[in-house]
Structure to design on (124 residues):
């Protein structure tokens, strides 16, 4: 994959693989594996689907991945890493695998807790 931000400069196969891998990360909070270590990821798409924000951190260590992805009105898909290389973002998105609990379920949480509180705990 190219290390440039605009996805339109990647090959069609690389574009498809990146987009499919990003789609496999559920909206909200999830835990999984990357590089043989446990990571958490929070993915928040905009209501209209034109933007995706993802923040991931290595649990018990210092690794972080953060980026915004935009779908422009002309269909172009743009990825903007936050203070890191595009290569690091690509490696994470392609390598992150959802973790499974002992019962086979996948650990995820919605962006808005079911009790009506926002992510910081304040009532809506």
């Amino acid at each position: 994959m190219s290390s440039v931000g605009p996805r339109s400069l990647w090959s069609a196969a690389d574009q498809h693989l990146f987009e499919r891998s990003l789609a496999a990360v559920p909206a909200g909070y999830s835990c999984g594996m990357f590089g043989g270590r446990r990571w958490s990821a929070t993915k928040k798409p905009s209501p209209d689907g034109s933007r995706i924000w993802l923040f991931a951190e290595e649990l018990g260590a210092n690794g972080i991945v953060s980026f915004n992805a935009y779908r422009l009105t002309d269909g172009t898909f743009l990825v903007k890493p936050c203070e890191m290389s595009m290569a690091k973002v690509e490696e994470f998105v392609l390598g992150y695998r959802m973790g499974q609990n002992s019962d086979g379920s996948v650990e995820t949480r919605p962006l808005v807790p079911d009790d009506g509180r926002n992510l910081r705990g304040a009532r809506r």
Notes: The radius of gyration is 15 Å. Residues 1-8, 111-124 have pLDDT under 50 and may be disordered. The chain has one domain: 7-99.
